[in-house]
Amino acid sequence: MNAAIDAELEQRITDYLEQHPDFFLRHPEILDRLQVPHPTGGAVSLLEHKIRRLEEKAEGYRQQLHELIEVARENEQLNQRLHQLTLNLIEATRFDEILATLQDELRGRFQADAVELKLFSTEELESARISEAGLAIFRKFMHTDKPTCGPLSGDKLKVLFGDQAGDEGSAALIPIRTSRLSGVLAIGSRDPNRFHAGKGVDFLVRLGELVSLTLQAVDNAR
């Protein structure tokens, strides 16, 4: 019963203070008398306690601002790299030139350990007889429109990257599609945590669109 009464009384006091925010302005002497236990021991005045809480909030805001600045800086760097990649892809006139440009740029500017572009005709993809052994495990992915990131087993790494693959690693898989071709752009790392499931994919979406449009343009010019 006492606990219920105490809880009701605390709620009434809380409600009153919320409804009368000027209470401590009208009774400043109470602030000097109130003591609040501190986690590190001892007690401080209510005013000191409030100041410490504000300082803790300010530190939290500073940390959030720092993280936002780091994200903005990283996004700016990605945009610059994507811009340079776009300029280089514009000059490509053959499929092998596109692949060479992707390998050079993604390895050099994006610190990838391996880059592969696997393309199949619509007929190959739908026939369940993909010409390259092992790629059938990626057929379902190549029917999607969204990139994915995460660790891959040694077998899948071997299928994607051949002799470049290690025993473990991670990869970003980006669906590629033109009017005649479908496939996957695979960017691999020997670090299993480099490409993780929580990694943002907005940049990868833009990269996939860029590569798809470049391949379409080269295909149309043939």
Mean pLDDT: 78
Tell me the number of strands: 6
The best one-word shape is elongated
Strand line-up of the largest beta sheet: 3-6-5-4
The CATH class of the largest domain turns out to be: Alpha Beta
Structure summary:
This protein is α+β, with helices and mostly antiparallel strands and 222 residues long.
Please give a structural write-up.
This protein is α+β, with helices and mostly antiparallel strands and 222 residues long. The protein has helices spanning 2-19, 23-26, 28-33, 46-90, 95-108, 122-127, 139-142, 154-161, 202-221; strands spanning 35-37, 43-45, 114-121, 148-152, 169-177, 181-189. The protein folds into two domains: 32-90; 93-221, Beta-Lactamase (2-Layer Sandwich). 56% of the residues lie in helices and 17% in strands. The strands form two sheets. Strands 3-6-5-4 form a four-stranded antiparallel β-sheet. Strands 1-2 form a two-stranded antiparallel ribbon. Helix 4 (46-90) packs parallel to helix 9. The relative contact order is 0.10. The model has no long low-confidence stretch (mean pLDDT 78).
Highlighted features:
alpha+beta, 222 residues, four-stranded antiparallel beta sheet, two-stranded antiparallel sheet, Beta-Lactamase, 56% helix, 2 domains
